[in-house]
Design goal:
Helices cover 0% and strands 53% of the residues. The chain is mainly β. Strands 14-15-16-17-18-19 form a 6-stranded antiparallel sheet, with no helix packed on it. Strands 1-30-29-28 form a 4-stranded antiparallel sheet, with no helix packed on it. A 4-stranded antiparallel sheet has the order 2-3-4-5, with no helix packed on it. Strand 24 and strand 25 form a beta hairpin. The radius of gyration is 19 Å and the shape is globular.
Length: 324
Amino acid sequence: MPTVVPLDLDGHCVAACWLAGIPHFALADGVVHRLDNGHKWVEAHDGLLAAAPDADGKRLVTGGEDGKVLDIGADGSIEQVAEIGRKWMTSVATGPRGAVAFSSGKTAWVKLPDGKLKELVHPRSVEGLAFAPKGMRIAVARYNGATLHFPAADGKPTELEWAGAHTGVTFSPDGNFLVTTMQENALHGWKLADGKHMRMAGYPSKVKSLSWSAKGRWLASSGAPAAVVWPFLTKDGPIGKAPVELGTRGDAMVTAVSFHPTDEIVAIGYADGMVLAGRVADQKEVLLRRAGNGAVTSMAWDAEGRRIAFGTETGDCGVIDVAG
């Protein structure tokens, strides 16, 4: 049976992640906690709005209500990436070779690997950011679609249109697809080679959590009483195909999903704090954590795929050791 090491904090957990094998929990009050031979923490922001670990799992980039973007190391060290006046930093993303993107209002900024800061102004507010897996390319989720920029160049951006408010964005691991979360209860996707649309609808509530499988064959999503897992097994992705549903429960919505780092297994967090693991191949499920206090807001596997850090909207955080 899996074992759970609890960490009882106070407040909404924006991000649970691993840095150098140490579990970190970034809370909305601006404090970043870690379990590193005991409970330690650093006061990073006066109000934290967004946080994203880098691909190497060595640092956490955070954006706050204080207009600052910070780089937090596994040892609690803090470096300032940028400060853009008294503006709320509503989203952050980490990219290749140390690149960082962040946004406030209608503007996105990209700090390139050489340290240059590129400003990208949009007609409407920037709601989400994501770097492509290869090359220095960034996607911006906005009203009525997404915009793709090559921030190191001065070329014209690519506009991907679809009516409605797009609130978050992610590239597939192979870079062939772009998927956005929407204000309505749906996802929308584009096949980047030819601009084909992928409308992924039918959710009873908003999708707030997405996670790709290691090889990009599946995309797991929250927003239903099960984890809705879309197939990206062919060149057209989920066009004309039905998703797999894992961990179906009639009494609680899925609020967070996280794919295992190597296997096609999804950790599924619910509105009542329960966590299950579901395997895509045979839909087999294992209970990892019983219901607790508050909806699960963030989860992340460690690099070995043995432990899961989780956080909730009430600060009911901790680490699940899957092997027990």
